[in-house]
Amino acid sequence: MIDDDNKTQEPAGELAIRTLAMPQDTNVNGDIFGGWVISYMDLAGLSIARKRCKCRVTTVAIDKMVFLSPVHVGDFICCYGELLKVGRTSMTIRIQTYATDELGGSYRRVTEGIFTYVSIDAHGKPTPVES
């Protein structure tokens, strides 16, 4: 559940990736392009899924994606992931992204989404997630 009134709540799960937003990552409004943020969220989820199943995984769905606050040039984004569910071949992971300014002063939740990954074999076919 996404709580729009509490953008400063503590992140759930583990820090999976942290990176700096640069000028080349902006959209036409001068804010960081949402697709850039999503790509880092996907990488964060991928690292959590691979750690869990110790195999290749692929992204199959992104649900409940909500952008709450813009990311600015010079912000560090931190993507936190929490494994919500493990199915026979799939894993569902909540990714929350927070931004801090370059001096670490403000800390705010900027987006959240539910990512689903499927474990695959060498031929790209779904394979059971090992327990």
Q: Can you put this structure into words, describing what you see?
A:
The chain is an alpha+beta fold and 131 residues long. The chain has a single domain, classed as Hotdog Thioesterase (Thiol Ester Dehydrase, Chain A, Roll), CATH 3.10.129.10. The chain has 1 helix and 5 strands; from the N terminus they run E-H-E-E-E-E. It is elongated. The model has no long low-confidence stretch (mean pLDDT 91).
| C-alpha Rg (nearest Å) | 15 Å
Summarize the helix and strand pattern as letters: EHEEEE
Strand line-up across the major sheet: 1-3-4-5-2
Reading off the top of the CATH hierarchy, the class is best stated as Alpha Beta
Proportion of strand residues: 35-45%
Helix content: 10-25%
Number of helices: 1
Number of domains: 1
State the CATH superfamily name.
Hotdog Thioesterase
Q: What oligomeric state do the depicted chains represent?
A: single chain
Strands, total number? 5
Helix/strand structural class: alpha+beta
Distance between the termini: 27 Å
Quick overview:
The protein has 131 residues and is of the alpha+beta class. It is 15% helix and 42% strand. The chain has a five-stranded antiparallel β-sheet.
